[in-house]
Structure formats: C-alpha cells, structure tokens
Amino acid sequence: MRRPLLSAIAGDEEIEAILSDEAQIGAMLEFERALARAEAAVGLISADAASAIASAIDRFRPDWDGLAIGMARDGVVVPELIAQLRSTVPRPFDTAVHHGATSQDVIDTALILCLSKIVPIMIDRIDRLESILSGLRDSQGSLPLMAHTRMQVALPVLVAEKLRTWSEPLARHRLALHALTDDLLVIQLGGPVGDRAGFAGHGAAVADALAAGLGLSNASAWHSSRERLVAFGGRLALLAGSLGKIGADICLLAQTEVGAIVIKGAGTSSAMAHKANPIRAEALIALARHAAGLAGSLGQAMVHENERSGSAWTLEWLTLPPLIIATGAATRLSESLLRSINFRSPDEAQPLDPV
Amino acid sequence: MRRPLLSAIAGDEEIEAILSDEAQIGAMLEFERALARAEAAVGLISADAASAIASAIDRFRPDWDGLAIGMARDGVVVPELIAQLRSTVPRPFDTAVHHGATSQDVIDTALILCLSKIVPIMIDRIDRLESILSGLRDSQGSLPLMAHTRMQVALPVLVAEKLRTWSEPLARHRLALHALTDDLLVIQLGGPVGDRAGFAGHGAAVADALAAGLGLSNASAWHSSRERLVAFGGRLALLAGSLGKIGADICLLAQTEVGAIVIKGAGTSSAMAHKANPIRAEALIALARHAAGLAGSLGQAMVHENERSGSAWTLEWLTLPPLIIATGAATRLSESLLRSINFRSPDEAQPLDPV
Amino acid sequence: MRRPLLSAIAGDEEIEAILSDEAQIGAMLEFERALARAEAAVGLISADAASAIASAIDRFRPDWDGLAIGMARDGVVVPELIAQLRSTVPRPFDTAVHHGATSQDVIDTALILCLSKIVPIMIDRIDRLESILSGLRDSQGSLPLMAHTRMQVALPVLVAEKLRTWSEPLARHRLALHALTDDLLVIQLGGPVGDRAGFAGHGAAVADALAAGLGLSNASAWHSSRERLVAFGGRLALLAGSLGKIGADICLLAQTEVGAIVIKGAGTSSAMAHKANPIRAEALIALARHAAGLAGSLGQAMVHENERSGSAWTLEWLTLPPLIIATGAATRLSESLLRSINFRSPDEAQPLDPV
Amino acid sequence: MRRPLLSAIAGDEEIEAILSDEAQIGAMLEFERALARAEAAVGLISADAASAIASAIDRFRPDWDGLAIGMARDGVVVPELIAQLRSTVPRPFDTAVHHGATSQDVIDTALILCLSKIVPIMIDRIDRLESILSGLRDSQGSLPLMAHTRMQVALPVLVAEKLRTWSEPLARHRLALHALTDDLLVIQLGGPVGDRAGFAGHGAAVADALAAGLGLSNASAWHSSRERLVAFGGRLALLAGSLGKIGADICLLAQTEVGAIVIKGAGTSSAMAHKANPIRAEALIALARHAAGLAGSLGQAMVHENERSGSAWTLEWLTLPPLIIATGAATRLSESLLRSINFRSPDEAQPLDPV
C-alpha cells in the first residue's frame, strides 16, 4: 500500500526505488540473461539460444496485469514472467529460457542483486554520519554537557564523550556490513529441489559463470537456509537501533527544561506556536522500534519446511523490505538531524518560557 | 512503498482504499466540518463561520506536495492541512477553522472514522467465512477424516469436527469485534494537552455534538492512552491467527502423501509441472505470523511519553495499518480458499505419482 | 531458570506460586478427581472407582524426578503423571483414571484453573491502583502541572488531568478482564482428537459435570483454538503497557531538570551519592516492552497444526507464563511506586544541584 | 521463576548454571578483584589495598537476602554487593573497593565473563552437530529421499542433499560465532558516566590491565551502546532458527503418511498407544520461534536514554538470558534428536496402520 504522507517521514525514495517491483523484475531478467549465457558457455544451451534470450530481454516489456494475476495464482511471479518472456523468444530457443532453474533461483538472486546496491548505500550513509559526527566533535566537542544516567542528572562530561557514544557503534556497523557483504551477496542456483540436478552435471560450472556474470559470489543452493538474509536484516535493525538511541538522546537533551541541544528546523504545532518538536529524533525512535519488531518477525521466517516453504518465504517478503526501508529512512533522517543540532553549554540553557 | 505484485497475495484493495492518504485526509476534513458545526451549535464560533468552513471543505483540493512537505517538517500533516484549508476560507472565518483542537484530535478521529468502515467489513467477511464453513459442513461434514496430533496420525474423526474447530473461533472473533466496536469507535477531542481547555468551558458539549455529527461515540480525550487501538490490532492478529491455523491445516491435509484435501486452482510451478501448490493456504500462515509480529510491535506503542509521544504515535502508524491490511488479506484469501477445497475420504486419497 | 535477584524487580511471588509446577500438578490432579466424579455420575466408571481415585489423589505425592523424565520423553507430563497416579489406585479401579481424556484436556484445564485464581488477583490489583490514583486526585489533583507533548513543554494542566490519563485505561482494563472471564475460564475436554468420542456418547454430560465440579464454564473442545489464551495474554500486555506509560511519565517528570514529581525511596547509585533513580518507573517501562514482545510471540502460537501442535503448544508455555508474571510484577511495582510519588508545583521545582 | 518440568524440554542445565545469580555474582567479584589489581598496578590504590580486597573476595559469602533487597531498591545489585564486600575489607582499604567504577562496569563485565564461557560451549555443540550430520551423511547419505517444496512432493534427491541443507548453515553459524568473539568479549569500564574520569588520568592503563587480568579484550566504554550484545542474541536466534528448520523437516518427514524418517525414542501419548510423537523436533520449532521473538524484544533494548537507561538495560536482562538458554536447549535437543533419526528409503516407507 502506498502511503506517501507517512513516507515523507518514514520512507526512503532511493532505497524504495531499488526494491520496487520494476527493479526486482529487472533483476530477474538479468538473472535469466546471465543464466542463459552461463549455460551456453558450458554447452547446456546453444550460443544462439543465449543470444536470442538476451535480445528478447533487451526488448521485453512485461504485462504487469498478467504478472499480478500470475502472482496471485502461483504465489511467485516467475511462472508467469517466464511464460511472458518465452513468448517473445523465437522458437526453438524459447524452451532454453530458465533452463534447469526454479522460481526461487530467480527471485532470490534478484533480491541479492538489489541488496548489492543497497549495502554500499548504507555504508556510504554511515560514512557520512560518521563524518558529520566528526565535524561536530571538532566544532563542539569541547563544550561541557551534563550526563544523565537512569533519567537523572549524573556528572558533567564533554560533548565529545557524547559524540563518541554515538559514533563508535556506527563504525562497528560499517565494519559489520563490510564483513557480511561477501557472505550475503551470493547467487541462488539450485534448481527445483536445490541439488542442481537439472544442469546435467554442469551445475558447478553454470553457477561459477552465473556468479561471474552477475558480479556476485558463488554459493551452494540456500533455498531453505535463510540465515544470511535474516542476519542482514538483524544488522540493519541494529543500525536503526543505534540511530534510535541517538534520536532518544536528542529528544531528551532538547527538552525545554534541559535545553542542552537546539534543533534547527524543528516541527511546528497546529495548536501551540511556541513548540519546537523534535520530529526527526522521535521518528528515529519509532523506526528503531519498528525495525526491531520486523527483525523479530523476519526471524520467524527461518523455519522453512523441507526444500522450500511458501509461507516462510512469503513472510520474508513481508518483513525484510520494510525493514530495509525503515533503516534507510533512519539513516536519511539521521543525516538531516545531525546536521541541524547545536549543543548549548549549561549557562546558555535557560528553559524557554513555555507559553 | 507500493508493491503491487506482493499485494496480489498480501494486499486488500477494499481496505487499502479506506486507509489511503486520500481517505484519511478526507476523514480529517469531515472532522473539521463537524467540529465547526459543533462549535457553532454551542456558540464558540458563529454559524456563518461554520457555513463558510463547510463550503470551503466542499471545494477543498489539497496541495499534496505541500502536505508531504508539511508532514516531513511537522511529523503530522495537520498544521499544513489546516493552513491550506484556512487559505480557502474567507476572512474573518478562516481563524475559526480547527478552533481549540489539536493535530491529534484530527488525526485520531480520522483514523477512527476509517476504522468505522473497516470493522463492519471484517465482520461481514467473518460472516461469509462462517457461511462457507457451514456449507462445507452440510456437503462434506459426514466424510471421515484422519485426525493428526503432534504431526502424527491419531484417530479418525468426521470432517464436521474439523470444520467445527475452524468455525468456532471465527464466531468468537465476530462477537469480540462487535463487543469492542462501541469502545473503539469514539471521537478524539482534547485540544493541545487533552483537557479541552480551548473550548472555553464548552468542551463536553462540543464533544457531544462532534460525536453525534460524525456518528461516533463520545469519550474523554485519549491522546496518550492507546489501548483501544492496540486491542483492536490484537484482535485482528487473533483473527489472522485463526485463519493461519486453517491455512496450516489445509497445507498439511493437502500434502501429496496425505491427500485428504484437494484444492482447486492451486498454484503452478516454474519447474515442476505436477505441482499443485497450496499458495493461499501458505499465505495465510505468513500473514498470521506477520500480523502477530506487528501486533507485538504495536504493543510497543503503548508507552507514550506524557501528553503525546511523537515516537510512539509514529510507531502506531507504522504498524497498525499494515496489520489491518494483512488481516484483511487473510480474510479475503480465506474466502477464496475455503470455496475451493474438497475433502477426500481416505480410500480416494492415493498419493499422486510425484513425477 | 531461577533468577531471584532479577525477580526482586521483575518477579511476582504471589502469581509465580500459582503458576508453579507444584500448583499446576495439583490442578491436574483436581481435574482427574473431578473427571472421575463426573464420569461416575453418568455411569462411565463406577462410583467406587471415582472414590478410589479421589482417595488416591488425596494421598498422592508425585515422583518429581520421574515427572521430569516423562516430560522430556513425551513433551507433556501427563502420561507419566497418570502412570504414577494409576500405580497408587487399587485394581481394578486404576484403569478408570483419565478415562476418555487426553493430555491436553488435563494440561489446559489445569492452566485455566490457575488462571481462575490469577484473573481476580489482577482485577484486585487494578482496583487498588485506581483507588491509589483516586486518593492522589483528592490530595494533589488541584496542583498545576506543566503538560508535555512530543517531549516539549506544552501548556499547564492540573495534576488531576494527568491522573485521569493514568486512571481511565485501568478502568477499561478492569472491565475487559471482567468481560473475558466467562469466555476464558472454561474446561478443556475433548479426548484424543477433540470429538469426545471416548466418552461413549456421554461427552456432553461429562463436560457439564466436570465444569460444575471445577467451578469453570463449559465449552466445546478447543485443543487447537488458542485465541482465548492469546487474547488474555494480549490484554495483560495492554495492562502492562498502560503501566509502562505511567512509568515513562514518572521517569520524565522526575527528571532532575523537570522536578515535577518526587519519588520517595528512589534507588541509590554505587558511584553517585546524589542520584535518586526512578527504579520502579524504569522497570515498568521494561516490563511493558517485554510483555508486548511476549504477546507477539504468543501470537505465533495461534498456528496449530491439525488437532494438536506440539510446537505451538510448547511455544505457548514458553511465553504465556512469563507474560503473566511480567504483568503481575508491573501491577505490584505500580502500587508501590504510585504510593511513593508526590507532585511538586512548578515554583517548588527547582533543579537540584547535580553535584 | 523456576519451572523444572518445562526445563526438562526447554532448559539447559550447563548454560543455566553459567548464567545463575551465583555465577554472575562470582563474576562480579572477579571484576572487583581484577580492578583492584589493575588499579594497584598503576598506583591508583595501594598494593596492600588490592591484596586486602583479593583476600576479602576469597572469603566473601554474600548475604543473598540483602542482595535481593538491594536489587529491589536500586535496580542493580551492585551498591548492596559493594557495601557487603566493603564491610569485610579492613580499613582503610575498604574504600579502595570499586574505585572509580560504576555499577554498569561490574554488571556488564560480569555478563561478558559468563558469555566467554558460553560462546565456546555453543561452538563445541555446533561442532558436535556437524560431526553427527557428517556421520549421517556417511551412513545414510546415498539413500533416496523425496524432496518437498511448498508442502508438496517435488522430485527425489539424495539424503546427502538434505543433510547439506542442515549442515551448511551450522558451519556459517560457527564461523560467525568465532568472528564475533573478539568484538563481544570485551571489558566494560567507564565509570559513572562512561568517560573514565574517576581514574585520574589512568583510565586507559587500568582498562588495559583489567582486560588482561580477566582474559577479555579491551574496549572503550559501551554503557549505552548495546549492539554487540544484541548482535550476539541475534546470532543465537539465527542458530536456533536453523535448528528449528531441522526440527520442522524431521516433523514433516516423520509424519505417519510420509514415513521418510523414523525417530528412535519418540514420545508416548496418554491416550493413543500407537503414537510416536516427534517431541524434540517440535520443541526445536517452538524454541526457534521463541528465540526469534526474544531477539526482537532484545532489539528494543538498543534505545538507551543518554548515558544509561535503566529501562533498556532491564529489558536486556529480561530477554537475553532466556534467549541464550532457549538456544542452548535447542543445541542440546538437536544433538539428541539427530542421534536418533533414521531415513527410510521410499519402498520401506509404508504408512503405519493408524489404529
């Protein structure tokens, strides 16, 4: 469901575009193109077939209504997509499309292709956040700040100490995203039951060539082993959580009575003109909690039945993309928010006149 | 984010339309119209002002881009919406718009107006499901069926017994939805801090008239008391859970080796022509698990800070609508699925030749 | 696992005792006694058998090690418990024990018997909380209090308005617990596959007599329909959520810089002598979030497979009791906390000297 | 709350002992001993003081009732524990106990010391599971097995292919646990507000020596940055999820009608003598779902307020230990279960006579 108004806060256009139906269908077609080429390289299909398939994909325009009908019927879009694509490939090459593969090979690899674009975006955004925090440290790090523990005034620290606690987890998230990249960005290729039996003994070679063609790492089939995706989702939820913690700090320090942070461009109220609402900071908390919940639900999708679970897989689709978008939104809002805060030394921090 | 392909399974057009931005903005305008009328009735604003506001609302076309910008800035759409609306109301009546109210009054009441359409739809759908189950009982209830406990063959029962276990919870959900209706479908009217101080002593009378005007029940302000909405979400998750249980049963009984249920119109496979995949039944399981997770996250939104929590409220927006839609989709799929199943007596149930 | 130190905050001795293994085994024996009596009344077993069973139960002392071994072997304690009990009933009456029933009849009914003690405790505690809040309203309701929305100073209200927002949800929880009592406190009696076939046509009569004997309501078998229990858990999570909201308010209002609430008996710090930590208020937030999460997980237990799911049922045991205890702890802490707060009018509320 | 019967399935004695109050208090005392030694090494306290503290710790027997009272009062056990310990250290050395540290330094480091024992146990158990699976591959890998996708018969594979899908994720979990070890097993040392100000400029040196003394890695203070612990919990939930997937497969393949796996020592029924219930396999599913839910709730604990959140920290205590134990139980059950399964070739797999 489209909710453009909510998306103004909780959306992320850049990442949503990468996860859109259009982008995912596009990635599926890239899979089919690369598969045909890989199969031609090992002689499973002819070079002419691979060329015909590639040409057809170049020209292919899906019948979207048909895809939706196929999705509702089959629970996956692939049977209908392949049928549509085949109908545009001249005989006898049409039967070479999708040779030996299964729907899950296409869909999972397409998702990974999308993630291969999202992971570097997330890393870039973390880099930028670290850079903004580093700038804040340079400009405001030597200011005094009252620390609070258990919601009570504790002892004074420097602003630099606060910024350290915001920045260090981001550095760890960056490292973790780098570390999981190789393991995550792998092809899916198993055929109907995961054993690559449909590749007539050439499964390993096809997989090698497919991975090379798509710029992904190779891996044995993981149709029913989803821990990589769930781990990725979990890391995103951690990232959203660290940003939610920054949001909580900013909300608390920007309280009228505390006044240790001033937010430029804070939100207005329909009823109280004096309000300066920490909208983005609050949204970071909401996104962190939403992401944590989605990560928990995504974890339920680990329990696949046998070689492929339609229910667990569908649950993954229902939870992982919103989790990615929520985390994307959190990084986006964090950048905007951190660019707009100023710490105030305690003597400046007089409570505003509330009315 | 729009995901039309996934929505072909997990969406619900009828309910999504009721929750759309357009519908919610429309409901917000109904609130402002009814508020003006109620305030005119008690003399807080003039009858002319109320008329001018009503006329302006009749003609009002929101600037959607402006609303999105306002949402991003203020965390709520209302300040910008009111500003847009006021600009279309002739002076001096423009200042009478939204008199004494706060953003949350508008947004929460608008949500409740939307829910007032959704609750009867859910009840109607439950009615239909019960009716389909009743028909199945009439036509197939006397067939024998092997019962299974703990994933093992137990003892034979009648199909009627199975149908009883599917139907009775639905009857209880129907009763529960009826029971919570009066408590749920209430106005929100508190003004900026919930005490109706902005209505110059006429708060109770305005609330009475507003409730009457909108066809909702009256209630004291509940800005920071969200248990009604969370309870509603919880009930939907229970409903989705009961439907997920039906889905699990159908998946298990339609297994090739069990063959106790045959599903007409089962899904096809891109690789295995003999497959008859229980798509809708699997989707019911996925939706049940998604709904349970969302209900848990929605529960996190109970912890409002003071008179209004931007973070908890935003979390509610992130979780309740998807939960409603998931449950709607589950009811929709259940109807289609239950219309397409046939129980087979054990002697008919020979395992299909798998290849 | 026992964690007495954590239980000092997050435990509830009174409720834990009701849910203890000893109490649940005791309730199972009450079920067997009442079942025998009910079966004797309809002539399924002899009156002598029922007497012999009742006498044996009076004297019965379980072999706990044996029960644990049986539990590990069978996934339920009942086969071993019945074997132990039968061995103490003189022949030929031993075979009359547990006649026609199944493990789930015993375990579920025993749980309901425990809940029949817990529900009134929860209602009593809510009554007490409402009474404390009413006393606060009498003594402090007319004090001024600065309201806060979105973590910012909003407008002044009376303390009575704050107390209203704390109290009204409790009243609704009380009503809801009353309303669900009749539906929740029902026997479970279905026999192995839920159809009461083992009672030789006397199923309805046995169920009537069993319900009467145990002081519970009658119901058809609900082995695989868990929405009553999950709804109960959901209501507890809502209650914990409302108390968590009170905790959040108290944490925020007791902040050093705000000083609008003073907590008597606040916690001390190992390092900062000036601290007055709002321990119980913070624990209320933690318990609310824990309860919401457990309620979400409990919702996953709705998806029973066929006539009995060992996995879903076990998940229920893993989640419902901790959820009940967390809510119990929240009610217990709330009472203590609300008895120890004082609102301070703004002129008294000077920030404490932090060091 | 102790629940020995449920623990017979869902508990883990070895791991519970490591997380017990006794073990955690013991680890806290090791922290204080090592801190004193580290502080003596840099001259912050005298060598005599460190010796006196070490001797006192050797002889120290906590007053457990007093600790529970302190816990309830302070929300952490440390102020009372330190007071008890100090009372056993001769003057003037008593004041040297806990010098410059804060409760969270003690509690978090003690938890990490416990985890430093648990991580290798988990890795060992994974090793054992992989070894059992390897043995199964050797003995039964060449048997045919019907694969199932979307709950339907798909195509035949070898048992070795099934075992591959069970084993490969375990290898990845092992690697991941190794990879996170260095990052996870770090000291916590920050003093009251995390900046080590109480160590008179010797903070870094004290931390070095403390880490060396405890056999942990060094790290800057992470009082309010919990992503390491939450990531650890997330990895455990993934492990539990992979084991839950094995459990689901075994439940499905051991179904009476499928009969592709036979489980030795399956559970008995109180009512149906022919049943062979896949107790451990079902419990694996329940534990996977419980772990996923707990991981989601643990994620809520990322949102710390400022320098220390009592509520988020308490939530961590409520969720991480049960998550660890659930995963431990899952590894324990998996070992027992995998040692007791036998695949049956399709011609052997005749449905058992159900009654």
Class per helix and strand makeup of chain A: mainly alpha
Please report the total strand number of chain A as a whole number. 4
Mean of residue pLDDT of chain A? 95
* Uncertain regions spanning at least 5 consecutive residues of chain A: 351-355
Determine the N-to-C terminus distance of chain A.
40 Å
Q: How large is the share of residues in beta strands of chain A?
A: 5-15%
Oligomer: homotetramer
Question: What's the number of helices of chain A?
Answer: 12
Task: Evaluate the radius of gyration of chain A.
Answer: 25 Å
Largest interface comes to: A-B, 79 and 78 residues
| Strand order across the largest sheet of chain A | 1-2
Features of this protein?
5% strand, homotetramer, mainly alpha, elongated, two-stranded antiparallel sheet, 355 residues, disordered C terminus
Structure description:
Chain A has 355 residues and is mainly α. The first copy, chain A, is 63% helix and 5% strand. Chain A contains 12 helices and 4 strands; from the N terminus they run H-H-H-H-H-H-H-E-E-H-H-H-E-H-H-E. Chain A has helices at 4-10, 13-19, 21-41, 47-59, 64-74, 78-86, 103-140, 159-184, 203-214, 227-253, 279-300, 310-338, and strands at 144-149, 152-158, 261-263, 341-343. In chain A, strands 1-2 form a two-stranded antiparallel ribbon. The relative contact order of chain A is 0.12. Chains A and B meet through helix 1, helix 5, helix 6, helix 11 and helix 12 of A and helix 1, helix 5, helix 6, helix 11 and helix 12 of B.
